[in-house]
Amino acid sequence: MGILDANPMSFSTFPDDKAVFEPLNPEDVRAYLHKAVDFISDYYTNVEFMPVLPNVKPGYLQDELSASPPTHSASFDVTMKDLRTSIVPGMTHWASPNFFAFFPSTNSAAAIAGDLIASAINTVGFTWQASPAATEMEVLALDWLAQLLHLPTTFMNRTSTGRGTGGGVILGTTSEAMLVTLVAARDAALPRSGSVGVSHMTRLVVYAADQTHSTFFKACRLAGFDPANIRSIPTGSETNYGLDPTKLLEVMQADVDAGLVPTYVCATVGTMSSNAVDPVGAIADVATMFHAWVHVDAAYAGSACICPEFRHHLDGVEHVDSINMSPHKWLLTCLDCTCLYVRDAHRLSDSLETNPEYLKNEATESGEVTDLKDMQVGVGRRFRGLKLWMAMRTYGTAKLQEHIRSDVAMAKMFEDFVRADNRFEVVVPRNFALVCFRIKPSGSMTEEDADEANRQLMEKLNKNGSAYLVHTVVCDKFVLRFTVGSSLQEERHVRSAWDLINKTTSTIMD
Predict the structure, then answer these.
(1) Nearby residues of 168 by Cβ (< 8 Å), 6 or more positions away
(2) What's the first-to-final CA gap in the chain, in angstroms?
(3) 179, 201, 215, 463: which has the fewest Cβ within 10 Å?
(4) Which one, of 186, 190, 270, 260, lies nearest residue 222 by Cα?
(5) What pTM does this model have?
(6) Which helix H or strand E contains 205, and what residues bound it?
(7) What is the DSSP letter of 441?
(8) Alpha-carbon 90 to chain mean position
(9) Rounded-to-integer distance, Cα 499 and Cα 482, Å
(10) 18 pLDDT tier (thresholds 50, 70, 90)
């Protein structure tokens, strides 16, 4: 008698007309993924011709599909048909070469493959022992990137002499990077406030320029800082909207004189609104006087700093406590991938460590490994290091630099188009691959009229579907942002966008 025959719960006891549910049947995996890969390849072939912004209304998907989950199974082909006919038409196509909004969300064949493989392996590498290769790969990829950025060895996990004092971790977003460093800075500052526990939390103060991403102010609230103690320091054209170290010094000294405790300063390299660059070294010099933690948010523009001609924007980084940059924005590595580096890893892990009995192991207790759970908010984590490593391993430094330089050159071309047309103005000097421009007042047109004209221009462009731009406000002016950086963008797409802007402006101005 065979094993199956001896087992009353053997597969043979199921009705003949019902197949056993095998969600990871190897042949299904092969068949489904082949179809998914074909879909992805076709998508990238055709996305250029799709409207960048969809023409759908809230709730449309429940009307097209179903508000209730299905009871019975369907073939995978039916699922893929729903994807094509209902879901894709409702997408804003960030991958489109006609997407010029926000900052780019880049991708590459190597990163997609890495993300796919990581999702399939589905490891949960909260400790080194839980998946040694996942931790080792993340450490390696971060150290490779640190070398491309010419970060000091104090930010590296491993150096030529062994394990470093600093280190890195790959998080989901910049928001997480800010939050965990704010918590570490808070815990370091509380003893200086004379606090027992968090009793003096209301004395701690944090600082950033008014151009700093709104996620910073959200993270401050999540970390428990009093909203009244979050300083947003005004910037202006005299510093190209970067944070003025002199103003920072004045504000921090005034807080000290008022009995408050400067705790954290956020400097940005490439702000969201205007792509301003805060002077990292000078800000660090000021903050150090008050023992405040200095964090650098280089989420977007940090990628450009792998090119020697842009690296000076990080000058002084050896004096900061932490820095983050997001390869998913501009370094061909798909969401989510934000790299956080800290100069002293223990300052972070001391605030975030969890050590339950069921996670204790010899590797952790040896002190030779980093358990990445202790450098993030949660415990569980994805195998993000694989896609970053695969992108760097496949393309190499030279190709990654070529990608950055090509985008910058196209942005420079667009900036030249704007400057050559006397109907427009470039509002702030271009940094990297973002151009902030607007229709300028002329003749009897007031600033208010110009704002309305720019608003109309943006709405008409976006409604057309052939391009997508967003706006910001700089010095009370309504300003259009044109960001080059989609992985599929070529010079012809930038030229076409400018032609559309030109023609649309003529209809508004006539």
Answers:
(1) 138, 139, 142, 143, 146, 155, 156, 157, 339, 340, 341, 342
(2) 91
(3) 463
(4) 186
(5) 0.92
(6) strand 204-209
(7) P
(8) 23
(9) 14
(10) low
122/116 Cα distance (integer angstroms): 10
Q: 10 Å Cβ neighbour count for 113?
A: 16
The closest of 484, 464, 469, 407 to 438, measured between CA atoms, is 469
pLDDT per position as a tens digit, 140-191: 999 999 999 999 999 998 776 666 678 899 999 999 999 999 999 999 999 8
Q: Residue 45 corresponds to which amino acid?
A: T
CA distances 504 to 93, 170, 214, 412, Å, are: 22, 43, 32, 21
Distance CA(38)–CA(315), nearest Å, equals 45
What pLDDT score was predicted for residue 9?
A: 42
- 211 touches 472 (CB < 8 A): no
**Residue range 44-76, pLDDT digits in tens:** 999 999 999 999 999 999 989 988 899 899 999
4 vs 16, 22, 24, CA distance in Å?
16, 18, 21
- Give 133: exposed, middle or buried? Use CB within 10 Å, 0-12, 13-18, 19+: middle
The CA distance from 204 to 206, in Å, is 7
Looking up tokens 């971060």 gives: 142
Length of the chain: 510
DSSP at 336: S
- Provide the annotated active-site residues: 358
What's the whole-number mean pLDDT along residues 14-32? 80
- Using omega within 30 degrees of 0 as the cis cutoff, is the peptide bond preceding 336 cis? yes
* Cα 502–chain centre separation: 32
- 């190209």: which residue's tokens? 240
Which DSSP string do the residues of 18-60 spell out, in sequence order? SPPP-TT-HHHHHHHHHHHHHHHHHHHHHGGGS-SS----TTH
Q: What is the DSSP string of 114-158?
A: HHHHHHHH----SSTTT-HHHHHHHHHHHHHHHHHTT--GGG-SE
Q: What is the CA radius of gyration of the chain?
A: 26
